[in-house]
Here is the input.
Amino acid sequence: MTGTTKEAGDLAKAKQAAPSQVQGKDIPPGGCIAESTRTLTGGGEQLYADLAQDINGQSYKESVKDSRVTKAFAAWSACMKGKGYSYKDPMQANDDPKFAVPTVSAEEIAVATADVACKNETKLVDVWHGAEAQIQQKMINAKAKEMDAIKKAKQTALAHVQ
Here is the structure.
């Protein structure tokens, strides 16, 4: 698939040369994945938008520090406190270790219900989305040339599969 013998977590095989053929057929450089990418993109290599993923991850990290979002988190937290739950932000409620079990408890349902009610009451989702979208737009604008190349590669790929 990748043109190498390395399997995830298998350092022993990482240095072994990949076979040049399988069942009498040549393995393309980079394996079948690289060959399919070259076919879909007409030879380009930017089908997978790592930059877009990076922007997504970085914008999330920045958004949780944005003053509008931290204010909305505080309002959400106060709302949750009024319903009997003590969480500083929605991720804390989501990641509460007591809910990391295979079955859903009545308490977990109650916390989730309060979470949704408080998100609605404080308009947290709208505030957070607006802040993160603004951050993302700035990042996209700063990398417009690179993002355009990715967009063109995806358009080329779509044209090759239709």
